[in-house]
Amino acid sequence: MIYTKNAIDAFERRYRANFINSLGGFKSLVLIGTKNSDGSENLATFSSLFHLGADPALCGFILRPATTFSSTLDNIIEQQYYTINHVSPAFVKQAHQCSAKYPKGVSEFEQVGLSPEYLENIPAPFVRESTLKFACKFVQQTAIELNGTTLVIGQITTVLVPETFVKEDGYIDIEEAGTVTSSGLDSYHTTNRIERLPYAKP
Question: How far apart are CA 176 and CA 155, in angstroms?
Answer without folding.
Answer: 25
